């Protein structure tokens, strides 16, 4: 399966990946509307960490033996055996945050308003995830290992 | 003569541990006959969600841990609502209460725990409950619906995870709740003093009365319950009592079989008991705890799942090592987020403690010889998993330990050699270059 990899040397810490992740996961898929009008405002599913000189984006690694899935109390987190994608069933997630404690990358965030988690879903329906497309310096690479 | 069934894998327990095992087995053995038995009648449901059932009547369909059709799709024979009465380990036979016998090649005991009932008067009164199964939650729900609204005065005996869970559910149902905790503070086995105090404050703000350093010595009333007598001689009127003083491993089935039991069934790093074809996991098992470096009970859902998964692979002939688990909990009672894992209160001064606290934000990391062995995060918990990962992987944190409790802590706070391999294209390169080599023995989680 394809995954997003990070090239730390190329990251300029601009946070555009976060912005376009939010847009992709918004209802309108429109930058201005997503940030100005949508309520709840869509949350980013990856985050730029660090500052100067080191920065990089962190998102779900879609682990082969995913600690978050094994920790999930409700069965909301699942690994698709074919694609290897770790996805969350928003209906079944109760926001207990046990997966957050289990994720060694800190790649899962709370949506406290809707009381459920948000994480990278590799942008279903898109050929290339929005963060990768948006990165101005190719610091994010979408490739198969 | 009673019927005898023959299976390759017999799983006793249809919960986190049992399901973790069957999924692992089916991952590598599509055909071998699997049977799963449980005395609870339901398809696998999320036990922690029984408090949501009680609080707001969450329907069973929304509590199911696996989608409908799970058993059929995975070709698993189910015996739900049936109890195993006796095990003959030598003959590899399990005998059910209704007389049926099932022979097995490999057996997994994922029998969980049973609530402890204190030896005091009145525990059998109408209106006195435990809270570990969906049926318990249903029974409390039925009882509540017969009481006039806003007239419920509940006493919860025990201020641990289960006690506080049922307290929150009862409050959401409009009950007035008193929690009676024998020790000096609530959640005392999974939180440290600071975090317990934050939880207690949060409970009080929600209108819960918390009595610590007290215990109930008698439950009184005819039918139903009328009140409790505390060890200081005071009486508290109530019309509902929930006993939540702890859970003990449900080891009954192995007593007299020679299988070694300490507090739980002792298993090695492959989840095998002292009898070669018998495995155990979850709340019933005493398995490797990586924070303490020894076998311990770690009765939490994730460990049952990973232990079951490890057992499943081994049962199916794929040697797999249990990475170990430790007590790990995430709580969000009355909106306060808190997580903890491992050694939260150091037993002596050979440990180092780093912490930072302001308002309802609290971070604490416990180290021993440079290794993280425990942690408590309250409020801002989103990076707690990174610290938990360091603990699990036994990474020496001496060089950067102060960072672990900093406000801006994240992966980037760690040395490059820790975060880089996880994020970058692995040295083996992109697809089609080098085929992955089969590891000698799999270690779970790697
Ligand atoms: C109210 C509550 C809240 C909780 N909250 C959390 C939480 O937030 N986070 C967390 O990590 N953990 C939580 N837990 C703990 C968690 O539910 C357990 O750690 C987990 O369920 C253990 O799974 P298990 O597979 O070992 O056994 P169990 O879930 O206890 O299941 C045991 C199974 O064995 C079957 N069984 C046992 N003996 C027999 C027999 N003789 N014959 C037939 N069947 C038998 C039972 O029917 C059952 O299916 C909570 C528990 C409770 C009660």
CATH topology of the largest domain in chain A: Alpha-Beta Plaits
Overall structural domain count of chain B: 3
Please give the CATH architecture of the largest domain in chain A. Answer: 2-Layer Sandwich
* Most strands sheet of chain A: 2 strands, antiparallel
- Which percent range describes the beta-strand content of chain B? 25-35%
Number of strands of chain A: 8
Mean pLDDT of chain A: 95
| Morphology of chain A | globular
- Helicity of chain B, as a percent range: 10-25%
Rg on CA atoms of chain A, Å: 15 Å
Mean pLDDT of chain B: 95
Strand arrangement in the largest pleated sheet of chain A: 1-8
Secondary structure category of chain A: alpha+beta
Total count of domains of chain A: 2
> What do we call the CATH topology of the largest domain in chain B?
FAD/NAD(P)-binding domain
Name every ligand kind in the structure. flavin-adenine dinucleotide
The level-1 CATH class of the largest domain in chain A: Alpha Beta
Strand content of chain A: 15-25%
> Helix fraction of chain A?
10-25%
Number of helices of chain B: 9
Which regions of chain B are unreliable across 5 or more consecutive residues at pLDDT < 50? 433-439
């Amino acid at each position: 399966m394809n995954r997003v990899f990070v090239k730390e040397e190329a990251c300029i810490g601009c946070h555009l990946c976060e912005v376009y992740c939010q847009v992709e996961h918004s209802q309108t898929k429109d930058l201005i509307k997503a940030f100005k009008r949508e309520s709840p405002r869509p949350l980013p599913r990856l985050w730029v960490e660090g500052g100067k000189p080191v920065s990089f984006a962190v998102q779900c690694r879609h682990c082969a033996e995913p600690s978050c899935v094994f920790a999930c109390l409700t069965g909301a987190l699942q690994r698709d055996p074919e694609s290897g994608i770790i996805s969350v069933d928003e209906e079944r997630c109760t926001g207990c945050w046990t997966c957050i404690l289990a994720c060694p990358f800190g790649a899962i965030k709370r949506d406290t308003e809707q009381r459920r988690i948000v994480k990278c879903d590799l942008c279903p329906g898109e050929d290339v995830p929005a963060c990768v497309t948006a990165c101005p310096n190719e610091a994010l690479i979408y490739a198969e290992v | 003569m009673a019927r005898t069934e023959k299976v390759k894998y017999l799983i006793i327990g249809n919960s986190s541990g049992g399901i973790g095992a069957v999924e692992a087995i089916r991952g590598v053995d599509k055909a071998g006959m699997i049977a799963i038995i449980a005395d609870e009648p339901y398809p696998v449901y999320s036990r922690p969600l029984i408090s949501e059932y009680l609080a707001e009547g969450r329907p069973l369909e929304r509590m199911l841990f696996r989608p409908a059709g799970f058993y059929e799709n995975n070709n698993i024979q189910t015996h739900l609502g049936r109890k195993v009465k006796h095990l003959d380990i030598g003959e590899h036979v399990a005998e059910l209460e209704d007389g049926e016998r099932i022979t097995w090649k490999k057996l997994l005991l994922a029998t969980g725990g049973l609530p402890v009932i204190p030896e005091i008067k009145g525990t059998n009164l109408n209106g006195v409950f435990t809270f570990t199964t969906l049926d318990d939650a249903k029974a409390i729900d039925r009882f509540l619906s017969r009481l006039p609204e806003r007239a419920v005065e509940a006493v919860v005996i025990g201020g641990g995870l289960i006690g506080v869970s049922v307290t929150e559910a009862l409050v959401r149902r409009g009950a007035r709740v008193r929690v009676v905790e024998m020790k000096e503070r609530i959640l005392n086995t999974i939180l440290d003093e600071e975090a317990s105090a934050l939880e207690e404050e949060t409970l009080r703000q929600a209108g819960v009365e918390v009595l610590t350093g007290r215990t109930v010595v008698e439950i009184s009333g005819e039918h139903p319950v009328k009140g409790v007598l505390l060890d200081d001689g005071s009486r508290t009127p109530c019309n509902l009592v929930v006993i939540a003083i702890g859970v003990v491993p449900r080891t009954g089935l192995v007593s007299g079989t020679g299988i070694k039991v300490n507090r739980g069934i002792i298993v090695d790093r492959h989840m095998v008991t002292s009898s070669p074809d018998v495995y155990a996991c979850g709340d019933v098992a005493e398995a490797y705890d990586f924070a303490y470096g020894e076998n311990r009970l770690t009765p939490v859902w994730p460990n049952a799942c990973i232990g079951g998964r490890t057992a499943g692979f081994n049962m199916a002939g794929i040697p797999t090592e249990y990475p170990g688990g430790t007590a790990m909990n995430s709580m969000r009672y009355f909106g306060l987020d808190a997580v903890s894992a491992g050694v939260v209160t150091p037993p002596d001064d050979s440990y180092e403690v780093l912490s930072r606290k302001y308002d309802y934000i609290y971070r604490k990391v416990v180290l021993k010889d440079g290794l993280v062995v425990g942690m408590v995060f309250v409020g801002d918990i989103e990076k707690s998993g990174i610290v938990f990962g360091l603990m699990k992987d036994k990474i020496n944190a001496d060089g950067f330990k102060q960072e672990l409790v900093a406000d801006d802590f994240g992966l980037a706070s760690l040395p490059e050699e820790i975060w880089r391999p996880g994020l970058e294209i692995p040295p083996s390169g992109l697809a089609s270059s080098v085929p992955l080599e089969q590891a000698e023995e799999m270690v779970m989680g790697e």
